[in-house]
Predict the structure.
Amino acid sequence: MRPFIARGSKAVRCAYCLMAEFACFCHLRKSMASPIDFILLFHRDEIHKPTNSGRLIADLFPEDTQAYLWSRTEPSEQLLKRLKSCQGNCTVLFPNTETAQAQNRQLRSLIPPSHQNNKKHTFIILDGTWKQASKMFHQSEWLKEIPHFEINSEAQRSFLVRHSSHQMQFATAEVTAMLLETLGHEKHSKHLLNYYQAFNEHCMISRKRGNNLSL
């Protein structure tokens, strides 16, 4: 926790969803089991923003999600232990294969349905702006041995046509919904996307209440 002093700081906020109380959407949170596990790596500049969408993943899949603050040189011991425990069964979600190939990073083209010990596959989700996520991916030596997975441009265009109005700029929750859809988990993808859309609608409700209570 830290003091919120940005625009909208005068609003009384829900402690859980961080929205102004009149725009709280906690009643729409319906958790379910996920077919894959998630490790959320939060950039420090993103985690306290009320408009951060990465936390929606933990909202809906709480038993399948672990979250950590990213550090370039000092990742938490708990995180490193978690990565070691899922070694060989873990993938970083990162869309830009071109820059990854420049570093000779391993690309995983197919995701195994399950591990030999029947463990779910783990995806590392980099939560930040594109610039922040790129920095997290390229500057973390402790991530460089883990293969990454790209959602191809065709799947991204298809997702845009069906679900979005913006131009190839995706929030963390949207990218994760796209990942679930790409892996064939359409029910979970739709569940996350619907929750993200409700989140956006409540952000807009908050903004429309005036400058003092806007996000």
Remarks:
- The first strand starts at residue 37 and ends at 42.
